[in-house]
């Protein structure tokens, strides 16, 4: 099991948190997602998965969900 943190820009409210959480938990290797909503900047997204995920994999999962950008 691997836990990774990603900074994601574009989350503004709890609705955004639900959308991002749903998109990432839909990935087959992901078992859990937790989001700390950033007040004035990127939000921290913690992902528990069977194996490490790349920034590109996270960005691809979020691409269809809205204007969310992985910044690191």
Characteristics of this structure?
29% helix; Heavy-metal-associated_CS; globular; single chain; Heavy metal-associated domain-containing protein; 72 residues; alpha+beta; HMA_dom
What's this entry about, in short?
This protein is an alpha+beta fold. It has helices spanning 14-25, 55-63, and strands spanning 2-9, 30-36, 43-49, 69-70.
Largest sheet: 4 strands, antiparallel
Shape: globular
**Overall pLDDT level:** 95
Poorly predicted tracts of residues: none
Number of strands: 4
Write the H/E string, N to C: EHEEHE
Distance between the termini: 20 Å
**For this entry, what is the oligomeric state of its chains?**
single chain
Residues in helices, as a percent range: 25-40%
Write up what this structure looks like.
- The chain is α+β, with helices and mostly antiparallel strands and 72 residues long.
- Helices cover 29% and strands 33% of the residues.
- The chain has a four-stranded antiparallel sheet, with helices on one face.
- The chain is globular and about 30 Å long.
- Pfam families: HMA.
- This is Heavy metal-associated domain-containing protein.
- Keywords: Metal-binding.
- InterPro entries: Heavy-metal-associated_CS (IPR017969), HMA_dom (IPR006121), HMA_dom_sf (IPR036163).
- It comes from Mycobacterium pinniadriaticum.
């Amino acid at each position: 099991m691997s836990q990774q943190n990603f900074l994601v820009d574009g989350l503004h409210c709890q609705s955004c948190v639900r959308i991002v959480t749903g998109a990432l938990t839909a990935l087959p290797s992901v078992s859990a997602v937790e989001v700390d909503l950033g007040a004035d900047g990127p939000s921290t997204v913690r992902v528990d998965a069977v194996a490490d995920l790349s920034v590109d994999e996270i960005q691809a999962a979020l691409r269809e969900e809205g204007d969310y950008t992985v910044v690191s």
